[in-house]
Amino acid sequence: MKYRARLNSIIVLVCAVGAHAAWAATAQSDAVTRETAHGIFKQLIEINTTDSIGSTTVAAQAMAKRLLDAGFPAADVVVVGPNDRKGNMVARYRGGAGSKLRPVLIIGHLDVVEARREDWTTDPFKFVEQDGYYYGRGTQDMKGADAIAVTNFIRLKKEGFVPNRDIILALTADEEGGKSNGVDWLLQNHHDLIDAEFVLNPDSGGVSTDHGKPQAVEFEATEKLYADYQVFATNPGGHSSLPKPDNAIYHVADALGVLEKSPFPFELTTVTREFFAQMAKIETGQVAADMRAILANPPDTAAIERLSRDARYNSTMRTTCVATMLSGGHAPNALPQRAEANVNCRIFPGHSQEEIRLQLIRLFNDPALTVRYRNDAGEVAEHGSDRKAMVPPPLRADVMDSMRAVAAKLWPGAPVIPTMVTGSSDSIYTMYAGIPSYGISGIAIDRDDVRMHGRDERLKADSYYTGVEFYYQFLKALTTRPAGAR
Prior knowledge:
By secondary structure, the protein is α+β, with helices and mostly antiparallel strands. It contains 14 helices and 20 strands. It has helices at residues 2-45, 56-69, 143-159, 182-189, 191-194, 248-260, 270-282, 285-294, 301-307, 311-316, 353-364, 397-410, 427-432, 461-478; strands at 77-80, 88-93, 104-109, 128-130, 133-135, 167-172, 198-200, 206-210, 213-223, 225-234, 238-239, 320-328, 334-335, 338-347, 369-374, 380-381, 416-421, 437-440, 444-446, 458-460. The strands form four sheets. Strands 1, 2, 3, 6, 7, 8, 9, 17, 18 and 19 form a ten-stranded mixed β-sheet that branches.
């Protein structure tokens, strides 16, 4: 008995030491991962990647160096692009030898929207840590997600993880605008580098929170179509002391006033119908009742009106168009000879750019105005494309099962809900190339703190590191399933 008791004590001690060693190794690993994640995020934020004066090449090369330093072969990490400022990094994480599964491609854009120092409380191109937040242009859109992807490539590599298929990471240029969209350029010029069975795009999806409490884990099942239009008027002009009613600026301003007060019609797709059905279980009171009411046949018009007061729900129910830029006149003491506005539209699935251009013409009902389509390079044309938003791809069981399993551990009780991205993303290029694309992110943003493209963009530090953990677990779950599992 004494021998058995002593043996049991030794076993307990050994187990305790082993458990402590395992815990210490895990803690050390977590600390290293956090340090790596912090350094990569800071580095990306402080590289200016705007279209005007920035360079995605510098950011692409910085991330390539990170991966090369972590042991990725030089042949598997390349930086390519159409010119010296618009570089794209493509890295391949090799799967197990003999795998017959085609790769999964992760895409993320490196470029960011323009930001002026005088508009911000902090320098938009400095990584500022304050009150539990990281501030800087791109923290939400989408350098946080880029940094997460690079961090986890390094983390998995150091662990010696071997996925059951290749994982490709493409960090690209000009999603936010410019003439050299990286995903499109790679598809046209280096398709072999990013050829994949399906795409994960962390530029969409994520965790919606309300004052920090997780409400839903959302994934993009479809998205709107992007379009810009030039609303243009001309006039002979004249001396400003002799004002005339046919003022070019007035023509444009009046049209914008009409646009502001004329929402596009209410619409639903199978995706947005499911979104509102699920959100009705999360929301309470009048909002929940209104969500159920808009799903009725016919939908309740008063409920539509009330929900439309919330910008997010409004944009989920219809095409939205808004004036974003205005210019006119040539001298302070002369009547304007020309005036123009840019109207930015996010087009509901089922409608084309040209269809919305014609709707704007009918809405303005002013022969003095010209409405022309403006492409990503700023060039105007008399017609927009007749191409409509793509049909949502079928949901893959391997992707959905992996996402649900990890989400249940990190955000227990928060439902996984399909959404329509009310903006647009680079998934439009991969989808049109025939590659099913899914918007999945593990970054949580409070519904009242969405600052992408805006002033003082920021991301909670805890949200960022939880996002790192989400994609780490998600990629491992997704790529350790038996070969042939779908």
